[in-house]
Amino acid sequence: MLKLSHRDDHASPSDHRTGPRNADxxxxxxxxxxxxxxxxxARDTLRAMVDTLNAADRRIVxxxxxxxxxxxxxxxxxDLEGLAGPSLQAPWNLLGPVEALRAAREQGVAAVVxxxxxxxxxxxxxxxxxxxxxxxxxxxAVRILAGAAIIDASEVDANARCERLATLASRxxxxxxxxxxxxxxxxxxxxxxxxxxxxxxxxxAAMSYASxxxxxxxxxxxxxxxxxxxxLCSQLANTEADLLLAYPWPDLSSSAGKFAPx
Length: 262
Prior knowledge:
The chain is of the alpha/beta class. The chain has one domain. It is 29% helix and 23% strand. It has six helices and nine strands; from the N terminus they run βαββααββααβαβββ. It has helices at residues 43-56, 80-84, 95-106, 138-150, 158-170, 185-202, and strands spanning 32-39, 60-64, 73-79, 111-116, 129-132, 173-181, 209-214, 229-233, 240-248. A nine-stranded mixed beta sheet has the order 2-1-3-4-5-6-9-7-8, sandwiched between helices. β1, α1 and β2 form a beta-alpha-beta unit. The two termini are 29 Å apart. 34% of the residues are buried.
């Protein structure tokens, strides 16, 4: 029988909480600091991920959450099969990230979950922002997440950035990340609109939130809808776009025991 997995350290999420940092004399705010907490992932594998992420984009400073450094957002990175077993025969292990996200919320720490695997394998009783990697690897998925909802090159207010990340973490949603690549900026804008229209039409529930990251010179007209949508200036290439599409997820924790047999 698989045993319950535990974190390597027992630091409270609040130990890593920091406030916004001021802009420098020319108006540039410091890089975003993201820490990654591993679940079902070997330490050496996470270290390699962090090195890869730091080499790919200097606008973000990535770190291993267990190192205890300051962070603007905690990303709980979950390998579902690595945590619960190849056939998910130990689903109780998934309670670890559920509890971690609950504790972060109680302590006012911005945190989200990024899971590799299918959404149907996530714990049903959960709160917070849970994101699945679709068919991407976790490294690719977290880079898409950063481009879609975290980086905004036009931002000059550190307080506004912290509020935006806190808002992302405060949502009770099930979300997916998507990357769109096209031959030209015009084709890219059209492909993004098509993807959003398809998600709104074919989703099992109405989308509750969308965040899109594009280059500043992409003329992107978001389809009119009641879905709150933000567009960030995050991409270096005008032929790529990153998207985070979110759907509402109810908080079932208060009713989990209501239908238990006497």
